[in-house]
């Protein structure tokens, strides 16, 4: 086997097709992040772990690894350069708080943090800026990735929400 194989997830097609078509039409109403931003206070139902004045943190519904969080501005912007000074400062402060919460909740050996700006850079939702914060451990690419070419996420989203929400601000 060469490289990471794909796991079939046909159930995602409807979501991806809807989001892509809405993006092509320029409809902000199709933005899943805007829908989450307006979904109320933090709860396991909406996956929001923290909500600030201009930014929020939410579980990644399709995590790369256990603990994967997204940090976003409430505003529908594509690029960090579109943020005002206060939004930019809060985005960074929320990212720092996410790092702390993940360290408390998961005790990882390292972290990945970054943004994919634009579809060509790998952004699945390119029109709403979002930062990825992912805890990592030595050897966290286990035999399933090596042998079967899939990733195993060993906790449900509600359990992940509880851990991260409880650790926020500690």
Characterise the protein shown here:
- The structure is a single chain.
- This protein is an alpha+beta fold and 170 residues long.
- The protein has one domain: HIT-like (HIT family, subunit A).
- It is built from five helices and five strands.
- It has a five-stranded antiparallel beta sheet with strand order 1-2-3-5-4.
Give keywords.
170 residues; alpha+beta; HIT family, subunit A; five-stranded antiparallel beta sheet
Question: What is this structure's SSE topology?
Answer:
Elements (H helix, E strand, L loop, with lengths): L12 H13 L6 H6 L10 E4 L3 E5 L9 E5 L11 H22 L3 E5 L16 E6 L6 H6 L8 H11 L3
Antiparallel strand pairs: 1-2, 2-3, 3-5, 4-5
Q: Could you give a quick summary of the protein structure above?
A:
This protein has 170 residues and is an alpha+beta fold. It has helices spanning 13-25, 32-37, 85-106, 143-148, 157-167; strands spanning 48-51, 55-59, 69-73, 110-114, 131-136.
Relevant CATH superfamily: HIT-like
Mean pLDDT across residues: 82
The run of helices and strands is: HHEEEHEEHH
Sheet with the most strands: spatial strand order: 1-2-3-5-4
Task: Please state the CA-atom Rg, rounded to the nearest Å.
Answer: 16 Å
CATH topology: HIT family, subunit A
What structural class is derived from the secondary structure elements? alpha+beta
Number of domains: 1
Tally of separate helices = 5
DSSP strand (E) fraction?
5-15%
Any idea of the CATH class? Alpha Beta
The main pleated sheet reads as:
5 strands, antiparallel
Shape: globular
Helix content: 25-40%
Number of strands: 5
Low-confidence stretches: none
């Amino acid at each position: 086997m060469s490289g990471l194989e794909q796991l079939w997830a046909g159930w995602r097609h409807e979501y991806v097709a809807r989001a892509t078509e809405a993006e092509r039409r320029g409809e902000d109403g199709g933005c899943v992040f805007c829908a989450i931003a307006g979904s109320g206070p933090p709860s396991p139902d909406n996956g929001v772990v923290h909500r600030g004045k201009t930014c929020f943190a939410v579980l990644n519904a399709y995590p790369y690894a256990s603990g994967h969080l997204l940090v976003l501005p409430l505003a529908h912007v594509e690029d960090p350069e579109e943020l005002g000074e206060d939004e930019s400062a809060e985005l960074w402060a929320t990212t720092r708080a996410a790092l702390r919460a993940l360290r408390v909740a998961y005790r990882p050996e390292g972290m990945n943090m970054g943004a994919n700006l634009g579809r060509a850079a790998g952004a699945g939702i390119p029109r709403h800026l979002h930062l990825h914060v992912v805890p990592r451990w030595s050897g966290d690419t286990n035999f399933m990735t090596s042998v079967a070419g899939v990733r195993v996420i060993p906790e449900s989203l509600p359990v992940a929400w509880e851990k991260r929400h409880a650790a926020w601000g500690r």
